[in-house]
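Lecture 7 notes: from sequence to structure.

We start with a single chain of 84 residues. Read the sequence below before looking at the structure.
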Amino acid sequence: MLAIPFPYIANTAGWTVAELDGSRGIIYGLMRTADGTSPRVGAGDTAFTTLGFLGLYSVVSLLFLFLVGREIAHGPSTLRRRGP
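Now the structure, written as tokens:
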């Protein structure tokens, strides 16, 4: 039961690591990492977007934990046996 959230955590951690690697789109040997930035996207835009995703993932994570906790507290359903 305690291992239920592990796939969700692994998926989110893998996505985060993949997206935070900023030099994926830079062609090795042809472009420098400094040349791969956009002059139209400022630090404030990046921070706002990152905080927005952090907030969204926090809300979804809390909702997930609430719903799983409610199902665990509800317990398993009992199957009624019908008579012979």
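The two ends are 35 Å apart (CA to CA). Keep this in mind for problem set 3.
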